[in-house]
Inverse folding.
């Protein structure tokens, strides 16, 4: 039986390989053989540590969703600095240029993966629901600082920003949108609630 440290190392190796395959080849290219080949290890390594491939994928998706805690903390820390629209543009661009945008079609593509995720993640799609929480928390902080209107409904604005950004970045094979386009989208959604107190 491997030690906890060894297991963490194997998980990291396999999860990082899965991310590279998913970003490069999309959900249809993400197979256990593709992951182990990318990781440079025998196929049996994955099956020694996970009951089956969907169990591996469920843990991979949840691991990537949990990694958003660091992004969320950085965005909350940015409250009161720069501009609200600039901070949101940077956060959304970083989010959707990461593996996040590729996880959504993966979850949609695999019925068994969705079923397994429901036990740990009862509502929404991992990553997107975390992203909405991250954006809503940031907007609430800016509202508390007076940089957006006190009546601003951050719980409604956050999914509007995430959903629209997801549509902009959804074409994995195309050219990602320029920062100016993302900023224009952000301005159109939050422009009505911004206050003149920004630096």
């Amino acid at each position: 039986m491997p030690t906890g440290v060894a297991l963490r190392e194997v998980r990291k190796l396999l999860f990082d390989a899965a991310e590279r395959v998913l970003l490069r080849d999309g959900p249809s290219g993400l197979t256990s053989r593709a992951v182990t080949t990318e990781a440079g290890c025998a196929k049996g390594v994955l099956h020694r540590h996970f009951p089956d491939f969907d169990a591996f994928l469920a843990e991979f998706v949840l691991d990537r969703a949990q990694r958003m805690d660091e992004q969320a903390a950085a965005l909350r820390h940015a409250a009161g600095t720069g501009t609200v629209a600039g901070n949101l543009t940077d956060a959304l661009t970083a989010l959707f240029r990461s593996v996040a945008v590729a996880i959504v079609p993966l979850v949609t593509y695999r019925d068994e993966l969705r079923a397994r995720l429901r036990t740990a993640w009862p509502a929404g799609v991992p990553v997107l629901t975390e992203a909405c929480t991250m954006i809503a928390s940031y907007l609430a902080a800016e509202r508390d600082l007076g940089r957006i209107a006190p009546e601003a409904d951050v719980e409604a604005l956050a999914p509007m920003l995430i959903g629209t950004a997801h549509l902009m970045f959804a074409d994995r094979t195309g050219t990602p949108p320029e920062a100016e386009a993302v900023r224009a989208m952000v301005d159109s959604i939050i422009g009505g609630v911004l206050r003149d107190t920004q630096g």
